[in-house]
Design a protein that fits this description.
single chain, mainly alpha, Amino acid/polyamine transporter I, two-stranded antiparallel sheet, 17 helices, 2 strands, globular
Length: about 425
């Protein structure tokens, strides 16, 4: 038996680890601000979109197992052209946005952990920049350390979040804020849906299972099982965390502590010890997510260059790692230090929702080969597109800067590919002449 093969447990842990990375720590407060008492419903709506999409990923991973994952599935469905290249460029940029989100969460929790000691002099931008730089150096020096960190982080955060849920549910019925979950405190339907879509970044990590598909034992059983079990488990976890958060602390205090709300909620239940434990968990979780996403993002960049969708210079190595790692880190530093949390989350969610719509449609086109039910993938594609437009429509009304940036990023990804292909044609023609 191949020792490099992984079973269902390991595959599920990849999916859960990818989803419960830095996302929930970063966007929970934002979710409550946008959806009010209906935040559990917002997480459920976003989870249903993820679940439909996981169907397409499961079938594509089973019949086209490739470490390229999403990039490979888009190319299989649409061929190598400007559209697929632009979509894959958007994937790389979306990884960078996710890195910015995780880094922002790390900075916020780190600052508030330090504040316990009475030191209020450190700015979160210094800390988030430091963790990006440190993680980049770590990726260059030892990827083995990165994988060990990720395994430890998945185990730690799931144990602590599970304890948080058990303790929180035990005390929530006696809370004076339990009434905040009443339907009268829910936002209007469109805002509820857009709230769920802004926080969709908390679900996107299930796609990492696709990258591990070639190494999964008993694939016909374990690949679909890994996708469905991980997504459903995380939907339940997020809904419970949202219920506990809203039922334990007033809306006003949640808004004040938006960037570190999970730690804030733990404090009334467990005091400073609870606050500290959740802060440390958030730091471990976001740090591991930054490490893993830096590695993944640089590999996407490398694969796009190999597939002639980005300049071949990006296949070059620097310190025994693709030069794309350095470029990814520098762009992360720029975005994390210039955009606010809502704008970063909006851009990341819009990017991944559009990519997932295209992956769903790719599986719809390839349904005969992947032995899929076309209507499920088509529903997934439609849900993702509705989600993108609902998100951008609502954000243009309430956060025009964030919506404009998200739209601009999407357009830029396709324009980049168009002009690159055009430039390549010109150079090819010159060589022939």
């Amino acid at each position: 038996m191949d020792k490099n093969k992984i079973g269902l447990k390991e595959a599920v842990s990849i999916g859960i680890g990818g989803m419960v990375g830095g996302g929930i720590f970063a966007v929970l407060g934002l979710a409550v601000e946008l959806s009010g008492g209906g935040t559990p419903v917002a997480f459920f709506i976003a989870g249903i979109v993820a679940l439909f999409t996981s169907y397409s990923y499961a079938h594509l991973s089973l019949y086209f197992p490739n470490s390229g994952g999403t990039v490979n599935y888009i190319n299989k469905g649409f061929g190598k052209n400007v559209f697929s290249g632009g979509t894959n460029n958007l994937l790389w940029i979306s990884y960078i946005i996710m890195l910015s989100l995780y880094s922002t969460a790390f900075g916020s929790y780190a600052v508030n952990l330090i504040t316990i000691t009475g030191d209020n002099s450190i700015d979160k931008h210094i800390l988030l920049s430091a963790i990006i730089i440190f993680s980049t150096i770590l990726n260059y020096i030892s990827f083995k350390t990165v994988t060990i960190t990720e395994s430890f982080a998945v185990f730690t955060k799931m144990i602590i979040l599970s304890l948080f849920v058990v303790i929180g549910l035990n005390g929530i019925t006696n809370s004076e804020f339990f009434h905040q979950l009443d339907i009268s405190n829910w936002e209007a339907p469109l805002r509820l849906i857009s709230g769920g879509m802004v926080i969709f970044v908390a679900y996107e990590g299930f796609e990492l299972i696709a990258n591990a598909a070639p190494n999964i034992k008993n694939p016909k059983k374990n690949i679909p099982g890994a996708f469905y079990i991980s997504v459903i488990s995380v939907i339940i976890l997020y809904i419970l965390i949202a219920i506990i958060t809203i039922g334990s602390v007033s809306f006003g205090k949640i808004e004040t502590a938006e960037d570190y709300v999970l730690a804030f909620v733990a404090q009334p239940m467990l005091g400073k010890i609870g606050f500290t434990i959740i802060c440390v968990t958030a730091l471990i979780s976001t740090f591991s997510a930054i490490n893993a996403t830096l590695y993944g993002g640089s590999r996407v960049n490398y694969e796009l260059a190999e597939d002639d969708e980005l300049p071949h210079e990006l296949t070059k190595y620097f310190w025994n790692q693709p030069v794309g790692l350095l470029i990814t880190a520098l762009l992360t530093l720029l975005i994390a230090n210039t955009l606010n949390l809502e704008s970063i989350s909006t851009s990341g969610s819009a990017g991944f929702l559009l990519i997932f719509a295209i992956v769903n449609y790719s599986n719809y086109k390839l349904a005969d080969k992947t032995r899929s039910k076309k209507y499920i993938s088509l529903i997934g594609a439609v849900l993702c597109l509705i989600a993108v437009f609902s998100l951008l429509f609502q954000q243009f009304d309430t956060n025009i800067k964030g919506a404009s940036i998200a739209t601009g990023i999407i357009i830029a990804a396709y324009l980049l590919e168009y002009f690159y292909k055009k430039s390549e044609k010109k150079q090819s023609k010159k060589k022939k002449d």
